[in-house]
Write a structure and sequence with these properties.
endoplasmic reticulum; transmembrane; Reticulon; membrane; elongated
Length: 207
Amino acid sequence: MSATSQPQSANISEIARDIYLWRSKKLSVTVLTVATAIWVLLDVYEFNFITVASWLSMFIVSSLFLYANLLRLLGKQPPDLSGLEITEEQAVVMANSCREMMEEFVRWMFRVSAEGDWFEFAKTVAGLLLLSYVASCCDLLTLLYIGIVTCMTIPVMYAKNEEKIKRCRDWIMAELRWFYEMIDNKVIKNIKNRMSVVKETKHKKVQ
């Protein structure tokens, strides 16, 4: 990755942090307001997505048209929208971000399945079961809206109570690992020992 793309990637991640940590309140309020408006229109009032997108596009285009013509009547320069263009460097940054996400997903899949980590496997199955239960109670749009609201509230709460949450998390992880080790010693190892005894017995009978 080039030296110019790294600062751009850092800027994008910094903007994302500013939004979900409420460092930039205007951006955070805008994101939450837009998400709420979309959810209300599509889920509560049951508008069609294409209809809402068309209305929003017409509003934006009409506003820019009126604003630009008003500036011309006042003898001023029309707004410069060149900053909205996606440059080649920005496209490379987005492509690299997608690649890193895919690589992280592959590493996670390898960690859960191929490495045989029972603890990681149990966490993954429990998380998927919880997600399937929540998804059975609401549609995809509501689930996405809940995810956005969660992302806008949980990080702020975590930042304010980080020490308490870390202590609680460490205690829970220690208890879960103790429970896993107990199950592993009393159940899984006994099953493996019995299977090995059965194999040895069969092997002796064959001899």
